[in-house]
Amino acid sequence: MILSMMGNSINAMILGGLALAFSRVIDNSVVVLENIYRHLERGEPPEVAAEVGGREVELPVLASTITTAIVFIPVTFLYGVSKFLFSALALSVVISLFASYVIAMTVVPLFCAKFLHKHEYHPENKTLGSRFNHWFNHKFERMLLTYDHWVAKAIARPRFTLMAFLIAFLLSPFLFTFIGFSYFPRTDPGQFVINIKAPTGTRVEATSEEVAKLEGIIRRIVSKNDLNEIISNIGNTPGFSAIYTSNTGTHSAFVQVSLKEGHKIGSYEYMARVRSEVQKELPELVTYFQSGGLVDAVLNQGLPAPIDVQVGGSNLQKDYKIAKDLAIKIRGMKGVSDVFIPQDVNSPSFKIDVDRVHANEMGISQKEVVDNVITSLTSNAMIAPSYWVDPKSGFDYFLTVQYPEKSIQSLDDLKAIPIRGTNIKNPTRLDMVANIKPIEAPTVVDHYQLRRVIDVYVAPKSEDLSRVASSVDKLIKNTKLPEDVRVNLHGSVLAMRISLKVFGMGLLLSILLVYLVLVAQFQSFIDPFIILLAILPGLAGVPITLLLTNTTLNVMSLMGIVMLMGIASSNSILIVEFTHRLREKESDIKKAVCVACRVRLRPVLMTSLATIIGLIPMSLALGAGSEAYASLARVIIGGLTLSVLLTIFIVPMAYLLIYGDGGSNNHKILLTPGEI
After folding, report:
1. Half-sphere exposure of 459 (CA within 13 A, CB side)
2. What pTM, to 2 d.p., does this model score?
């Protein structure tokens, strides 16, 4: 079942990759179509316009496709589950991009040569389409005049313009101090689980009464229209079934709350409301709230908490005391909602100390004594499993031997358990071969890599893990520990830190690879540097977008940054490549820059708007589980918007400073239709 659900998650990632690819695959066709139509406006025949226009943009389209694909290199550096999930997304995007390049360079020019013609507006033509085209072109020309005006102002002072943008970019990283970090966006699972513990040693009947009170609180807070089902699991039973429960004794239980599909209030909001009421009405209970979803379980590496503080040492009692002290301090930290220690070391128990010398004299082994006790208290299913296969149905059934219920109700009954052995004829009593005394014992002993550990589960109030984890790290560092005790953090916080670290290294590598690819295509070491300047405003827009949308920086946000790098660089490729082509005919570099900015503004805006509009539904997180993709879409939308607004000024100014004289004479550059 888990593998099936994980497969569905991977399929969802593929669909998400196709949704992202759809917003980008049309960009290549838009660039080719716009350039062909520009040749048609000059009066060239459709066949000539299609051939020449497609050939002119072949290099920039190929370069933008490769750069967008190559930035997915960091996916290979991801850690844990995210690596396998994002591999499907990256592969679907890359395949779609190269398929779009083939279509843009073959099918689009062919269709343009056969079906595209120059459109001219005639006043007597009153169709809605022709009037809209005329109105749009008129407004766009007015916008171009405004853009020409500001480009001329920027050209007059290119150094000042470029330095102002660079200073603004250098200040933007400080915004990350106000942004939270998480491993994966929080999604509404449509359910939640409450782990509860009464005082150690509480009888199961008393625990059931506490659970009934808790269920009453849940039914009172959760709307009837949203509540689907409540399932409570109280205590545990010895045997194989104990594997499937998190309960550690008669004093522990967990309550699963399922919400109806389409519930109006989210799971985490209901968790906060129930938690508040439980703390008021049932202060004697220790509770821990978790989503109980498969996604969180996988991301937390099987743990119920995103932050698991593990205290490991050689003395279980001492380890538990240290864990309890840490839990008290962590509970008082800002941003912490729940702190829970699943283990107990003070459960009322009986210690049966077999007198091996006396038992051996009677012909009874220590194992036979233990087997008799287990059989009398539960059954012999654990020590002598036997099966019977129903010949009609083929089902397997356990065959067990057990004592009648309620046959052992007191300590005297326990001492009177008959002990039988293979070497004795008549049974003897348990107290004849063993000493029985009450003790306090652990309910469960957990291990991590063969080392006994006490867990402290920590749940943050919000999606942000970084601030709580940093506070826990500081607490552990300032806590004086015995030499034989180790305290480590586990859970999704560990995967988050590793993923962020290796992702940063992967981003630097992808930028280097993009630079080398552009060097090979443009045969220049300077042009790729100018092109990659477009990434800076895009990266500056990321923290601004995250702050405005109250979104954390997570692996999905980082994946959005990866795609943003490829998209931003593809826009600047169009400007730089066309400026070089104009300089072959135009000696005035300022005039060539202005013409390139004006001509390439339309395809840059069209391709960017296509991506932004295509990602708006994803950014709104309208469907169930769509919260996982929202941060990715928001990063691309915010970063690309700022990148487009600034790239059309930064890249031309950088080109002018590097290849031109960088003069400051403020003269107006007139562009004729033939030059454009």
Report:
1. 24
2. 0.81
